[in-house]
Structure formats: structure tokens, C-alpha cells
Sequence to fold (252 residues):
Amino acid sequence: MTAPRALVAGNWKMNGLKQAVYEITRLNELINVNGATCDVLICPPFTLIGHLNSLSAPNVAIGAQDCHMNMSGAHTGDISAEMLNELGCGYIIVGHSERRADHGESSETVNAKAVAAQNVGATAIICVGETIEQREAGEALDVVTTQLKASIPDSATTDNTIIAYEPVWAIGTGKVPTAADVAEVHLAVRNQLLDRFGAGGDAINILYGGSVKGSNAAELMSVANVNGALVGGASLKADDFFDIIAAFGHIG
Ligand code: PEP
Fold:
């Protein structure tokens, strides 16, 4: 089975006002001029999705950071996958550690959100990762594989699912696991995907996330079973983000 192209995805979190349009047009232009060997995605706050999707920036897909598990109903303040689909979102992040921590989302909830995303034809980017306490206790592999098992729906395919391994302690801290540690977790994720989905599991992209920047991207992205990156802080400025995208040009 052929794997999809690698993906470099930006998660803007709760950052970005209308002037952020500049970053998307700049990113589009950088890719036009220099090329990119991976797909490129930005997930802005909900408020910007429609606006950014109406720009003429074909090199940059626009996705969402979350969705509700239901398509409509009495859920004040929530946004459904169907609404995101109407705005042209082809990707929806689910289970980011900040949502698991801030909103108490369980892996079962994440699983239901992934199904909702898939049901509207979007690709669910399912996030998993251990805390520093869990890593120091030697539980990282156990935690990640347990989260993964419960968070991935049976409906997962190469086209509708991407996994993002994001150690919680590496997010926004400037700390990055060693290449050996990343390789160990990504291999465990790959093995679980193969066990569960057969050959199809070999072609599901597995992203690494946690303090990725231009200076460490080439090393992280060259680790076996790393098929791209999920990037927070360094995705806010087009030039910084493009340095990560360009790192793919130096691989293989
Ligand atoms: C993230 O929030 O998904 C993330 C990886 O953030 P950062 O790149 O800032 O560590």
C-alpha cells in the first residue's frame, strides 16, 4: 500500500486574528517559489477557518483543532464536524493533550470525535502522548499504546486517519526527546497499526509533535516511522514554519 505524502501541520491553538491572513499568503508564496515535498496544513482557531479557506492559497490546506462528537444538538459553544466540512476543512485534530487536560477528554471521547470527522470525509489527526511523570516512571510506551488503542476507531484507514505522537512534556517547552526515544515510540505505534489494520497500518502517517523547529526538524523527520510533524509555536510565522517544511527536502 502506498503511504500518503508526509504532512507538516501547524496548530495555531488560541492564536490569530484577521491579520493572520498575511501568514497564509506568505506561506503559500514560499511554497510556490521553493516547492515542498510534503503536504502542508494550518489549523487556525475556528473563527478564522472560513476566512482563510476563502483565500487563494492552494498550497496550504486549512483544518480545525477539534470537533464535537455529534453533528448537531444542544451543545453550547461547540462546533460539529459537519459545520467544519461546510467550511472546507479536510483535516480535524482530535485528542490534543491540551484538550485532554483542559476539557477532561477521554480516549473514548477522542475516538467518537475521530469517527465524526471521518463521517464527513475529513482526516482525523489523533493525538497521543505521555506526561513527564509517566516518561520518568518508564511508562511512556504503555501510556501511548493504551491511549492509541482506545482513541483509534475501527473505521480508521490510510485516507481518514493520521496519528500524532506528542509527548506532553515537549509541547511548548523547547525540550525534545532523543531520536532514539522518538524511534522507539513511533515503532510501537506502527506495530499497533499493523496488528490492528494489517498492511493498511503501514501506510497511516505518524507525525511527531513537540517543540519542532527549523533547527531540529531534519533530524526528527529522518527518524524511522516519522511521516511528518505537528507544530505549535513555530507554525505561527510563515517563515519559521517554512524552515520545517524545507527540512523534508534534506531527507532521503
Ligand atoms: C502542539 O501543540 O501540538 C505542539 C507541538 O506545540 P509546540 O510545537 O509549540 O511544542
In short: The chain has ten helices and eight strands. The first strand starts at residue 7 and ends at 11. Residues 7-36+44-234 form a domain with the TIM Barrel fold (CATH 3.20.20.70).
